[in-house]
Amino acid sequence: MATTPPTRSPELRKDPVTNRWVIFSPARAKRPSDFKSKSPENPNNNSSSCPFCIGNEHQCAPEIFRVPPDPNWKLRFIENLYPALSRKLDHPNGQNDDSSSELSGLGRVVPGFGFHDVVIETPVHSVQLSDLDPSEIGDVLIAYKRRIEQIKQFDSIQYIQVFKNHGASAGASMSHSHSQMLSLPIVPPSVSTRLNSMKEHFNQTGKCSLCQVQSKDLLINETSHFFSIAPYASSFPFEIWIIPRDHSSHFDELENKKAVDLGGLLKLILKKMALQLNNPPFNFMIHTSPIQVTDSELPYSHWFLQIIPQLTGVGGFELGSGCYINPVFPHDAAKILRELNVPI
């Protein structure tokens, strides 16, 4: 006679990195292993009109650089044709803090100077980031680093966000594999909250909150220089973080050898996620430190790469409270992904 598995009780967890409360409510979902994307991403392989494909460079916004610097390129950094910020505005000298921003009757105003760039990760329309080999993904990561180093020359830029939207429901307007970089004249509130939370943890324990999260129950895969986990208070089902083993505050400190290592782990995780979750749309974000940090902030600021498969929607509760409801406990997600074998 079949028995009904015991129902696990809901649980609230607070993340020491994001300072966010998450409600784990497994009763709202089926078995974790049955979790699949309801709208798998099926890339459009029609490259005839795609401006990102090799040979169509004239259809794109101005190029910043390409690798290698010849007609047979492997990746290109270009300006975004529809930028959120303008690089053509006069940029102010120094930082745009509260003392330098203009106070209107409704709030503070900072000129919208900044950079919005696109990284075309491959010249071939049908090839996705996870199809590249580790060294090629490493080239994409080093291209991020190269562009960050260029932008850091502008004193008014305070934070640089690297992100990738894969799939229309994850925010991608183009099916050709690409990622983006937005360079901001302010430090976003979520970044300040993250750093303050990491500082609080460091003051309480004397340890970096990311250097000590290597729990076997949460571990998915690891390499010589990086490890991947399902974070202790995951806001989303099957959320994944890839973290440098060595303490590092800024992504642009990444070395070439470590970029290849990270490329291999990122490829593996994306392959596992696609196989287990039915090729879901996803976002990844690189969470780094603001460009200007003091020596006292370095011991607790640690960069990491966050991957969020789009499996559930965000509703009124999440938008209103800032808390998230996750139907999958992270150690369950980690176990499923850890035990999954995929060809590389």
From TrEMBL:
Keywords: Carbohydrate metabolism, Metal-binding, Nucleotidyltransferase, Transferase, Zinc. It comes from the Eukaryota. One of its GO terms (molecular function) is zinc ion binding. Binds 1 zinc ion per subunit. The active site is at residue 178. Its cofactor is Zn(2+). Zn(2+) binds at residues 50, 53, 125, 176. This is ADP-glucose phosphorylase-like.
